[in-house]
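INFO batch 0412 | record 1 of 1 | parsing
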Amino acid sequence: MKRPSSYSKEFNRCVAFHGHVCPGLALGFRAARVLMERLGVRRAADEELVAIVENDACGTDAIQVMTGCTFGKGNFIFRQHGKQAFILVARKRTMALRVCVRPDVLRPDPDHLSLSDKVQNGTASPEEEGRFRQLQQGRTQKILNMASESLFKIEEVSNDIPPAARVIRSGTCDICGEPTKIDLLREIDGRNLCIPCSQG
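INFO prediction complete | emitting tokens
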């Protein structure tokens, strides 16, 4: 894989957070750059931006690093749609943009898929691992260099601006005794239960 020092400083920050270079991380990096540039915003110090991601893959790490949106601040929202799609909301502008990877960007390559399977299940030879890294580097570099419009479908979306995060006090589950946000406790048969305990 290309050495991190040969990538941009911004992308290297994403690599340091994520742990490795890969095409998925590059997709999230490019998505964040496109969304932020089009909205005319900078990295959020607090909750000025809200990121909504439609997958739980590598690119979501780059979205967090680039936008400053995190689960802990309540402005990073996950929706499992299985799509390489990302929404960024600028609260002050009450505007949201969405990008979705175009279907022809990363067409399945039988050689890449076969090598990926072998690497993941630990059966790849050193030569196959080297070939896989070369293919990964090529796909990553392609994503980093593509024109935004060729890489993504970009659209303004009407999106209800999520409310700012608020601190919610905890109560205690009557079965396991663990502290739980009170808005997530379920009252069942006169007892306050956390979600796992309420489901048996």
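INFO post-check: The chain has seven helices and nine strands.
INFO record closed
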